[in-house]
Every structure is written in C-alpha cells, then in structure tokens.
Amino acid sequence: MKRIIFSATALLMCSGLLMAQGESDILLMSRTQMNGTARSVALGGAMGALGGDMSSIAINPAGIGVYRSSEFAFTTGVNYNGTYTDYHGTKMNDEHFNLPINQIGYVGTWMPMREVNNGVVSTHFGIGYNRINGFDQNFIMGGNSLKSSMLSRFVIDATGKATNQLGSFGAELAYDAYLLDLLPGMESEYYQAHEYISDQNQIVMPNTINQRQKIEKNGYGGEYAFTFGMNVSNLIQLGASLNFQSLVYDENNAYREQNNYDVIAVGPLDVDYFEYYRNTNLRGTSINAKLGVIVRPIQQLRVGLAYHTPNWYQVTQEYNERMVSHFHAAENNHAIVDSPYSDMEYKFRTPGKFVASIAGVMERGLVSVDYEYTDYSQAKFTPAGGNFDIDNVTDPLNQSISIYYQPAHTIRVGAEMKLTDQLLGRLGAGYYGSPIKSEYTISDMARTTYSAGLGYRTNFFFCDVAYMMATQKEDHYAFNYDASVYDYLEPVSPVAVSQYNHQVSVTFGWKF
C-alpha cells in the first residue's frame, strides 16, 4: 500500500460526496414522515379519499368537505428511535426518546338554514398544524483496523493549493493541527499524519486505524395549514389550502481516528489520535399550496385526487468545525483548532407531489388506498437574494440531484371496522419508495410502516389511539473521497444503517 510522490492538479470533490452532502438537505425538506392524528397513523396514512380528519386534509384538502359538524382535535404521543450500525463487522446501536405534539387543529362547518341535498350543501374553513417530520436520532458507529482515513479526504481537497489558499474549514484545520504537511520541496502537495516518506521517496501508511463517530440529531418539520372547501350535492367535495412549513434541525457530529501502531510509529510527531467536530444548525420556512377533489360515484365508493405544489424554502444554515490532534513525541503534544463561526442563506425548491386515492366505505367498516408520486430529481438549490457566492456549491448540487435522484412511489393501505357502535379497530401499512437510484446506493432507502389502533366515538367526543413501527435502511459515510486519485488510497465503504421508529399517538377531539 504505497504511492510514488508526484505533482498533480487539484480535483473537485468526488460525486459520491456531493450526493451525500446534498442528500442531507434535500431529504430533510422534501421527504415527509407519517404523523398527525392517531386515526391517520392507525390507517397507515391512507386518508386521501376518506376526509373528515385533520390529517386527511393535509393529504387531500377536499377532505374538509366531508365534515358534517365543526371539530377541534389535538394529538400527542411518544416516539422511540433505535439506530443500528454495521461497519466492517463492528456493530453498534443507540436510541432516542421524544414527546412530540403531532397535530392540533379546528374545522368550522357552515350549512344553509334549511338542509339541502343539491348545490352547495356545506362550506368549511380549517386551521391547523401537522408535524410532517421528526429528526431526533442518536447515531454511533465504529470500525477497527482500517486503512482508510478522513485525512486522505483533506489531502485531496488541499492538493493544488498553497497553504494560504486552504480556506477556513476542513483541510485548513487539519493543516493547522499538524495533521497535514507539505511534501518536501512542494508548495501545493500534501501528505497526512498517518503517512511517512520512505527512503525510496514514497508515501507509506504502515499502520491501521480505528474509527468512531457519534452524531446527535434534533429537530422537526411542521406545517401550518389554512384550508377552504365545500360539499357539492353530497357527490363532490372540493378543497384548497395555503400552507406554511417550518424546519428546525440541529446536528452535532463528532469523529475520532486512533492510531493502532500495528507496525511502527510514524513521522516526527507520531500522531496518536485526532478528533473532528462539526456542528450544523438549519432553520427554514416555506410556502406551498394544495388542491384536491373527492368524488362519490356511488355511496359506497370515494375517489380522490390531489396536487401539492413544490415548497419554496428560504434556509439559513449555520455551522462551525473543530479539530483536535494528540501526538506522542511532540514537545507540545496536542493542538486544538477552531474554524470561524459561519452562516449562509440559500433557497430550496422541493418537488411537487401527486396523490390518487380510493376508498370503499361500508356500514360496518372501510378500506382505503393512497398512491403518491414525487419526483425528487426536480428539487433545486438556488442562491438567496444576491448571494451568488454560493453558486459554486448550488450548481454542482443541482447537477448531482439530476444524476442520483429519481421519482419515488408511495403506497398506503388502511382498513377500519366497527367492533361495537362506539368502538372501532384499525390496521394500516405503507411503503415509501427510495428517492435515490439503486445503482448509487447499496441499501434500499425505501421506508415501510406497519400500524394498528383503536377509536372510540360518541356524538360529541372521540378518542383514538395508534401504534406504528417504521423501518428504513440507508448508507452512511463518515467521510468519502475518490480512491482513484492516488493508487495508494483504500476505497471507503459505507456504514450500513438500520432505523426502527416506534410511535404511539393519542388524539382527543370534540364535535360541536
């Protein structure tokens, strides 16, 4: 495992890393999770043709036309997220609990003084909040006796740049922490602290290293909806909504490499370990609209169609980094280097969404199916205002989106049965297709959900309880680089991540 020292021009960040960097923001803002009312959760989110529920309105705003009275509802619950990782055979896991508010809302219903069956039977206005994403997660991974290093990524980023051109993050921190150094006689080529120069003028990395990473994520996505709708002749329900979404996301990322000393100490400083910390905070607001219709060709059948426009996000991202290095044989045996505290603003457009639904409603129960289509390759980053300085970031990310992302198909199925006149039993399931093309990911990023619940109904009050389990697998890279840059580099393997989310939701509602 060695390479001969030679001059080379700087290379751009590899496409795999671009995908991973863009994926974080794209999926945070574009891919929603199933939350909302307990009835919706228990039915697997298959509510697009049913209506008469606060969460069904978020899927198809025409569902507001199904209401026969005014209503106020509130939903809370408990979430448990377990994350399991496998990296070169080393398995680890972590967990996180939280108590979210999933939904709160009011629907007002107005009918003519005399009840009619033709024309406009009722009009409706709704205002509400639905939690559409939860980002709370604790993640830990580790691998032992490895030949890949994050420092090689920084070497590639630094190649072709003088020391005063490295910037304020990443490679600059590694250089200031004595983890990168110029090759002898060179002004823009580097080697890293796990390597040394042999008597044959070659770069050698004799030892293996142990890697560890700990990530703590917190935050949520929420939607505030103002919905208008009507019931026409008890045959057609029409609805439209204006929606404002908010995004709060905080990530604390800690990474560590420990020298194994399999063979020999390396270089005059003899690095023992280094740690790399990155803190990221995202705040975003957006606006979108939804249009929907539900048709009843016969009393027992409901067919729904809805379109969600793209979300237009305004995002502020703040971040900073820290590098800590520790050496055995140096007079000052450690270094701590901090980046400046930096922020940038940008705009992001999510893809639009089409939803088609069908439901069979009988006297003692119902069956409902939703199909959802979202083309993630249509997402797009743009600079905010006149901030064209980030064009060199947004342009390659948009190109990466068109290459790596694809349309995703979602299927949700639910069934409800009256157990007694007041007690109902429910089951549901959902499949959320992967937004990334299969040739660019090892794990299938599809998400599946399984749910069940009970509901209690009277003329003026209802209470619903639901349990849902969601599972998803994905690839994670603590770092990445183009291994073809130098024949010495060991390719980076992804961490296999399995997530299991368990959610219990409870809704209380009043009709009047």
From TrEMBL:
InterPro entries assigned: OMPP1/FadL/TodX (IPR005017)
A cellular component annotation (GO) from this entry: cell outer membrane
Main location, first listed in the record: membrane
Signal peptide start and end residues: 1-20
Subcellular location: Cell outer membrane
Entry GO MF terms: long-chain fatty acid transporting porin activity
Topology in membrane: Multi-pass membrane protein
Lineage: superkingdom: Bacteria
Keywords for this protein: Cell outer membrane, Membrane, Signal, Transmembrane, Transmembrane beta strand
Family: Belongs to the OmpP1/FadL family.
Protein name in the entry: Outer membrane protein transport protein (OMPP1/FadL/TodX)
